[in-house]
Amino acid sequence: MTTEIHRDAWGVPHLRARDPFALARAQGLVTARDRAWQLEVERHRAQGTSASFLGPGALAWDVFARRVRLADTARRCQAALTEQDPETAAWVAAYVDGVNEGLADIGEGPSPGAAPEFARVGLAPGRWEPWTPLAVWLSTHILFAGFPAKLWREEAVRHLGPEAVGLFATDGPGTAGSNGWLVAGERTVTGHALLAGDPHRFVEDPGVYQQIRLACDEFDVVGLAVPGVPGIAHFGHTGTVAWAITNAMADYQDLYRERLRRTGAGVEALGPDGRWHRAARHTEPVHVAGEDTVEVEVLETDRGPVIAGGPEGLDDGTPLAVSLRYPPRVTGDLGFGALLPLLRARRVTDVDRALDAWAEPVNVVQAADTEGGVLHRVAGRVPVRAADNRVRVVPAWEPGHEWTGWHPLPRAGLTDGVAVMANQRGVAAGLGVEFAPPHRADRIRALLDERRTWSAADLPAIHTDTHLASAAALLDLLTALDGLTGPAAALRERLLRWDRRMDADSEDAAAYAQVRGAVVRRLAAQPAFAALRTPPAYPEVLLPWLALVPRIGYALEHLLRTEELYGVDRPALVRAALEEVAHARVGRPPASWGDTHRLAAWRALPEPEDEARAPALSGDHDCVLCTSAVPGLTDLAARGPAARYVWDLARREDSRWVVPHGAHGTPGHPHHHDQLPLWLRGELVPVVTDWAHLEKESDAPPRR
C-alpha cells in the first residue's frame, strides 16, 4: 500500500500507510512540512542551542537545558529503548527519517511547508537524530511538576514559618493544568460514554498540540499529537476506545542543596555518608547570536545535575548549589514504550496496560470503550522518599533523602456515572503537595448534574463556563465593609450584584479584576512579605516560581480567608484597594474585561504588533474556561486551553475538537489561524473519519 496524505476542510492531516513504521515516517514528514519552524525551535531548545539564532533572550533557557542535561538524558533513554524495546526504537527512528526528509525538502527551496522565520534569522533546517523526539518530549515537560516551587517554599518557610507552605499552596505560575470529564453510558443519550476536556498550557503559535489521524493495517487513531514526537500520547480515539489526561500535580522531582568543593582533579560533592565524592564536570559553549559565546560549567553529583550555583555559590555570592533528581535521568526511561501500545489499544484494559509503561509527566488518565469499560487512574513514576523531599530543598549530605522505590499508582471510580479531573486534590492526593483549588472540578460536576443525560453536542458548553467561585473570598470582605461613601460605595454595590462571570464583555468582571489586582499589590507591599520581594540569584528560568506578586495573586483566596495573616489588617487593605480603584474610574469610559484580558500567545519570534492584534478573552484562572491572567501583574493570558475535545464512543465521527490557531504552522497559510475564531467562541469542528470526505493531498515520496 502506498503511503497517503489526506486533509480535511481544516487542513488536518489524515495519514494512511501499510504498517506503523511507514505511518510514523509519514507523520514525521507531514509534521516537518506543516511545522518546520516549530520543529527546529523545539530541537534547538532541547539541545540548548536556540540562542544561536534567537539571540540573548533565549540564553537563560539554553543554559538551563545544558545544566539539567536534557539532550544527554534523551540519548541515554534512546539507547535503553534500543536495547530493551527495539520495535519502539525503530518506530521512533522511522518518524525521525520522515522529519529529516520533510526538512530537506524545505531546505531545497520553496515548498508548502516553507516558513519565513528561517530567512528572518538566517537559519537552515538541521538534522534530527533518533534521540531528538525524546529530547523534545523531555524539554516540553521538564518543568511540568513545578519543582522550582520548592525554592519558593524554602524562602517562604525561612521568612514566614512552616505555615506558609499551605497558605501559598495553589496551582502555581508555571504549572500546567487541565480539565477533563468522563460521562458513562448510563448518563448519555446514546448509551455510550463521552470524554471531554481541555489541556491548559502556555498557548503557543504554532500550537503545542497537532490534530492528526494515523491509520494503518493495525490501527486507525485520531488525536492530538505533540509536534516532534511520534504517535498520539495524551488524547486519542481508536474507534473502540478513547483516552485523555490531565496533570496529576504529583511531586516526582527532588531538589538537593549541595556542598561542593574544587580540587586539583575537579569538583567534589559531600554525600550522605559523610565523604566527598567526585562530581562529573565539563564545560559547554553556548553560542548567542550577536553576542559572545558563553561557557557553561556542567556539574552532576550522585543526586543529579546541578541546576543552580556551584562550588562558589550563586551569582550573588550566596553559598548555595542545587541539584535536580528526576526519574528519566535515574532510570534511563522516558516512557516511550507506552506509545505504540496506546495506538493499538482496543479496550480500556489495553490502555491500562500501556500506561503501566508511562514515565513522565505524571498524569491522571480517563478512558472509555465501546463495551462500557471505563478507567480513571494515575500514570507515571513517583519515587518513594522522605516527606521533606516533596516540600523543600533537602541537604544532600544528610542521610534519609534517598529514593527507595516507586509509589503504587492510585485508581478511582465514577460517582453517579461521572468522573471529573481538574488538577484538584483527588485521585492523586497522596502523590503531591500543591493542587489546584477545587473550583473548576466542582463547577464541572455541578454543570453535569444539571441534566441527567448528555450528548457530544451538549458538552462544549461546559468548556466555556466563566463562573468564578474563588471571587467569594474578596466579595465577602467587601460585604463586611461599612462607612463607604461616594464612588467606593457605588463600586462595592456593583460588585456585590455581579453574577461572578468573567465574560469578555462584562464591565463588572473588569471592575472586580481591578479591585483584585489592587488588593494583590497592596498585600505584596506589606512589611510581612518584604523579605520575599527579592529572591536569591537563581537562574532566570526558575524565577517565575519565586515572584511574590504572582504567588500572592494565585493564593489570594487562602490569604484573605486564613484566620490570621502576619498582622495584616485585611479589611483596611481591601477598603483602601476599593477606594483606589473607585476614584481611578471616575471620569473614565467604562471598560470590559476583554479590553485588558487578551491572549498573549508565545512565539519564538514575536512580531511588534502581536499584542495589538491579541484577541479578547473570557474566563480566568479558576474558571472552567481557564485563561490565566496574573492578578496584580497583568490581565494578559499566556496560558489557556491548548485544545478542546469531545470523544464520542457511540460514533467516533460525532466527536469534535479545536485548537487555538490552526493545523498549519506557517504564517499566511490558509490553515494557520482559521480555527482561532471558533476557539474564541467555544465552538468545535467535527472529527472527520470517512476517507471519501477528505481531499487526497499526495502520496508520500518513497524513502530515500
What general form does the structure show? globular
Structural class: alpha+beta
Assigned CATH superfamily of the domain at 469-625? Aminohydrolase, alpha-helical knob region
Distance between the termini: 17 Å
CATH topology of the domain at 469-625: Penicillin amidase (Acylase) alpha subunit, N-terminal domain
Global Rg: 25 Å
- Please tally the β strands and state the result: 25
* Count of alpha/pi helices: 24
Strand content range: 15-25%
Helix content: 25-40%
The level 1 CATH classification of the domain at 469-625 is Mainly Alpha
Low-confidence stretches: 108-113
Binding site for Ca(2+): 251, 254
Protein name: Penicillin acylase family protein
Keywords: Calcium, Hydrolase, Metal-binding, Zymogen
Family: Belongs to the peptidase S45 family.
Tell me the layout of helices and strands.
Blueprint: E1 4-7, E2 13-16, H1 20-47, H2 51-54, H3 59-68, H4 70-84, H5 86-107, H6 116-121, H7 132-141, H8 149-160, H9 164-167, E3 177-183, E4 194-202, E5 210-215, E6 220-225, E7 235-237, E8 241-247, E9 254-258, E10 260-263, E11 266-270, E12 276-286, E13 294-300, E14 306-309, E15 321-325, H10 327-331, H11 339-343, H12 348-355, E16 363-369, E17 374-379, H13 387-391, E18 394-395, E19 418-421, H14 439-448, H15 460-463, H16 472-480, H17 486-497, H18 507-524, H19 548-554, H20 556-561, H21 570-585, H22 593-596, H23 610-613, E20 628-630, E21 634-641, E22 644-648, E23 656-658, H24 676-681, E24 685-686, E25 695-699
Helix pairs in contact: 1-5, 1-7, 4-5, 4-7, 16-21, 17-21, 18-19, 18-21
Cofactor: Ca(2+)
Protein name: Penicillin acylase family protein
Family: Belongs to the peptidase S45 family.
